[in-house]
Design a protein that fits this description.
By secondary structure, the protein is α/β, with parallel strands linked by helices. 41% of the residues lie in helices and 15% in strands. It binds 1,3-dihydroxyacetonephosphate and iron/sulfur cluster.
């Protein structure tokens, strides 16, 4: 942290100073700050755009900005770089990775492809650039069913999230989905009993859940959706209390979008540690030092781009990105 900030700290709140610094540097660098819905609220507040994985990947394409600061986890910043090779893309905290994305490697995927030579490979965007390069098409939690259905192959190798793959299988009985045994280390923490307890405590409250949760939790759902689907569902519902089945960062946006509604978490365990590593201080540091720049070897990037673009061609425009208006 800069000395001048520490010196001024006695007279002005440090967070406010950091915020001013971020906004000033953002302008100077002509930077686009992109934040995932799970980010700390202080980071969401300075972002130009807030959204789910699909919306954010798309939002980075064709902007007039010189620099993209991706406040999320590594695979998201990688996707932005894959789609914008000419732009500098920065992940403020190098260690902010997605544990689920680390559960599949390109090498192990190549072995699996040999076992099922007729299968198409669908990779959840929560995967490395190398894994994307080995896949036929990508998907997100917002379009997994649509992507799988669009493929001519009966057999689908789905990596790495077994829970999203299992959820998609419910809607694609005509397909044989070969599940990888990966999972989200955050969404795996909720149990069906947690949901039952919350429903007893808040009778009539709809349970909205992310498809990275285990199947018996999904069975309890009133609505299953990506992080961009929560707010539109709440907008249409007459209920005043909602049980939220995803990472706690989501609550900030929901409260902002629906100030009169009440949101409850069925478990206190819904915190993604790596999503929470990015603080306002790290965003300021990234803008100042231009650390940590995403680099992807060109042959891998080119293949991974095809995988992402095939997904985008099928899923069309995704309307749920929220332009932040703070
Ligand atoms: P979405 O925002 O695409 O629903 O993804 C959730 C997630 O876990 C991202 O890491
Ligand atoms: Fe990965 Fe789960 Fe964290 Fe998303 S919430 S970044 S899937 S560990």
């Amino acid at each position: 942290m800069e000395l001048d900030i520490l010196e001024k700290a006695n007279t002005k709140d440090v967070k406010a100073l950091l915020r001013e610094k971020v906004l000033r540097l953002k302008k100077e660098r002509n930077a686009y700050i992109v934040a995932h819905n799970y980010q700390n609220y202080e980071v969401q507040e300075v972002a130009d755009i807030l959204g789910d994985s699909l919306a954010l990947s798309k939002a980075t394409i064709g902007t007039g900005y010189d620099l993209i600061v991706f406040c999320g986890v590594d695979f998201m910043a990688e996707s932005a770089k894959i789609l914008n090779p000419e732009k500098m893309v920065i992940l403020p905290v190098r260690e902010a990775d997605c544990p689920m994305a680390l559960m599949v490697t390109a090498e192990r995927l190549r072995e699996k492809k040999k076992e099922f030579p007729d299968a198409a490979v669908v990779c959840y965007v929560n995967s490395s650039a190398e894994v994307k390069a080995e896949s036929d098409i990508a998907c997100t939690s917002a379009n997994a069913i649509q992507i799988i259905k669009s493929l001519p192959n009966k057999q689908i190798i789905f990596v790495p999230d077994k829970n999203l793959g299992h959820y998609a299988q419910r809607f694609c009985p005509e397909k044989e989905i070969i599940l990888w045994q990966g999972f989200c280390t955050t969404h795996i923490r909720i149990t069906a009993q947690d949901v039952i307890n919350a429903k007893i405590k808040f009778p009539g409250a709809p349970f909205i859940v992310h498809p990275e949760c285990p199947p018996d939790v999904i069975d309890q759902a009133d609505h299953v959706c990506s992080t961009s689907g929560f707010s539109p569902y709440i907008a249409k519902s007459k209920a005043d209390t909602f049980i939220i089945g995803t990472e706690v960062g989501m609550i900030f946006k929901l409260k902002k979008d629906h100030p009169t509604k009440r949101f409850v978490m069925p478990t206190e365990q819904f915190v993604c540690q790596t999503m929470k590593m990015t603080t306002l201080g790290w965003v300021a540091h990234a803008l100042e030092t231009l650390e940590h720049q995403i680099e992807i070897p060109e042959p891998i990037r080119v293949k991974a781009e095809k995988t992402l673009r095939r997904m985008m061609d099928i899923s069309g425009d995704h309307p749920n990105a929220a332009i932040a208006s703070y």
